[in-house]
Amino acid sequence: MKIKKVLVSQPKPASEKSPYFDIAEKYGVNIEFRPFIKVEGLSPKEFRQQKISIPEYTAVIFTARTAIDHFFKLCEGLRVTIPDTMKYFCVTESVALYLQKYIVYRKRKIFFGNSGKLDDLIPSLVKHSDEKYLFPVSDVHNEEHTALLDKNKINYTKAVMYRTVSNDFTPEEKFDYDMLVFFSPSGINSLLKNFPNFDQKEIKIGCFGPTTAKAVRDAGLRLDVEAPRPEAPSMTAALELYFKEISKASKNK
Predict the structure, then answer these.
(1) What is the pLDDT, as a whole number, of residue 253?
(2) If we measure between CA atoms, which residue out of 246, 251, 252, 249 comes closest to residue 6?
(3) What is this structure's pTM?
(4) Is 40-164 assigned to CATH 3.40.50.10090?
(5) Residues facing 109 on adjacent strands
(6) What span, in angstroms and rounded, lies between the C-alpha atoms of 208 and 238?
(7) 105 confidence band (pLDDT: 50, 70, 90)
(8) How many beta carbons lie within 10 A of that of residue 219, not counting itself?
(9) Are the CB atoms for 206 and 226 separated by under 8 Å?
(10) Which of 101, 165, 189, 207 has the greatest CB tally within 10 Å of its CB?
């Protein structure tokens, strides 16, 4: 099999039980993990330009742990004290539980959905229609979320608190991969920023999500492995199928 070295543009899994390690062992592939993008918070000076006063809000909507980190970090930088009366609305229980890093969980009013989708949280937001919501987001965020909040007439303000930037490669870093795996359009942008003359040739490209797939094709690149799809709901499932196919094909030669 020609593919020996794969770059997955995500942080290395914390657990050794990750399917990536099983795939690497099963097919004799070296899988390396290196994000093409990284998240950095806005400085208090940058945030002030949005003319948003955090103390004016009575509730916060969180769609990710990253948003929680940057919200509390900015509050600290701005010297804003969050009142005990602040309500928190989170897309999942795991995101809600992450609040324990910053607040005494049992003493606060916390609400969460079950599906991980903002739709699931809408009934709770509507029920507390008197609240003035703050919605911390990245500079690159899901516009469907704001459209959903607008549709349900939620009284909220979108606050950009962090940004996605390219995690640049150093001249010393080898870029000798047979396959690249991406999870966001930002990753594709970072690839082209780091390697303006990138020539795909025999390098395989895999990606997760329709927007990432579109970014691959819009960049004039060839997409070889795509997820999710019915037979491969995850990126690791798609890779497993792909390696199984090319392994079978090489044996039949």
Answers:
(1) 65
(2) 246
(3) 0.69
(4) yes
(5) 87
(6) 9
(7) confident
(8) 15
(9) yes
(10) 207
